[in-house]
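Deliverable D4.2, example record:
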Amino acid sequence: MSIVSLGAHSLKTLRQSWPPYAGAAVALAGGIALITLATNMLGALGTATDGLDEQTRRQIDDLGSLFGIMAGISLFLALFVVSSTFGFVVATRRRELGLLRLLGATPRQVRTLLLGEALAVAVVGTVAGCLLGTVVTVPVLRVLHQAGVTPVLLAMPSQGTGWAIAACCGVGVALVGARRAGARAGRTQPVEALREAVLERRRPTVAQGLVALTAAAGLVATAWFAPGMPLLFALLVGMFLPIVAVIGANAVGGLLYTELAAYAGAVVARRDPAAHLARDLARTSSRMTAAVAAPVVAIMAVAGSMVVAVGATADWSEGADRAALRSELVVEQAERPERIQGLPGVRVSDVRRTAPVGFGGERTEVEVVDVADAAATRSLQATRGNLADLHGRAIAVTASYVTDLGGRVGQTRRMRIGDRTVKVRLVAVVPDAPNLWGDVIVPDDLPGIGRVVRDTGTVFVRTDPGADVAATARSLRDTGAEVSTGEDWVSTVAAEARDTNTVVLWVMLGPAGVYAAIAAVNAVLIGMSQRRRQTATARLLGATPAQVRRTTLWETVFTGAGALLVGGAVTGFTAWLVRQAVVRDVPDAPLTVPWEALSGITAACLVVLLAAAVAGAYALRGGEAPD
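Output generated by the structure prediction step:
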């Protein structure tokens, strides 16, 4: 049989077997829509840097990293959801494929047939996903701006690049997902055409076992090295380790998820016959159980881990700020900060100032300080080098800057200030305190810096010994500025950072949660299409429609309980890992558990499971006893 005739036959069989393939197309379209949206958002950021100030440009650069992570998560979800969906399609067509083998089709011809069908589904799903992603881009960009995530309203970018990337991802995901299913289909024996039932395999293959063991070894190694792991590395591991854990769990999902579902339903099964049957179904229907659990585990593990990692970063930042800040009062929106020094009760007024310069091959905002004032109010001190040398043509950088971009004390670099270039020497490395100073610090007597320096409106104030802090604060407020205590200022900044992080995470992970719901519902609907005869037999034996639907609901509940347990365990491990690095760096860092965000993720997973349960019950609404 030629490739052309196989292609034509693929289209014919696709038209005849469209119900399961419709689910595959929907799953693929959802994933491609997410990738298109993420690509469009990255493209919008790339066109928004012209005419913006340095701070806004840096904020947009940071968003680019977040949107890139969103694109990676979307591709990850699309890959294993589409792969499991195609596996379902092969399972539903077992007898048909066995009949083809009985009529003389070779394993290669069966694989080629399925790949041809997958390619057709890829075209439909990719076009639909690209259109959907394009349609939702503008509303999402508007919501991001209204929520304060983006400093400016981003414009819709050109669709050529985004569609090209999404199309390549769509075809690639579909073919990769169909390849494994095609290999399984190629092993279909002719006798399958004569079988009425088949026992689904729960025991993992050797390759699946190796994948799971590799993932487990990665978790054990991470736990072993956690006590000495630097914070930045721990955060990176905390972002990507959940993906490794999910891949390992899904590799043995046919065994892991079914056993957890059976364990979760053990107590209820003793009291309700429908629950007992649901427990047995969840344990024996390994493909459907794993397909429903996989997206829930992915969302719970990836989203939960990102939430706790970002929350730990906020705890570290707050702890570092509290440890370094020595100012009793912090003044903001000060119009004339130079007047503060002469007010009664004020001992030191440290005006926070920044300046845009060219450094390290790009435009950078540097912190301009009076070293003595910054040491008195913000505990500016050196961990390497000597701050006494921070004067004239000299700079200091933070420890994280050295980790990210390198540098050593004594090194000479070029810095462009205005229209002139000066050589500066790195004289000190200082601790990180993100809200107290920037990554690059220069003295206020650096040649030329006075022409480009600007006040930020924030002044750190140390009061005279024995002065009435409340009276000093009233004097400062009389200048028209906003005044808060140092403790309150740190709390406010930390709360604002956590709120912003929460909004960004919901924007990044919200679409992925919707996609997980679609994937779970899709898996249940395809799975229920294989149970028509089983449902009819149960009705023949006296089961009522309500009992059949209740069995489906219980099965989804047990599966979801096992999935939440796995996802929660991965999230808890990530939280422990990142916390080890935080307290190693800042021993007095507060411990803030993001209960609201974690509860929201759990609620989203429950909604996914509820949608799957309702879909399954709806699919069985017409199950009647056979004549």
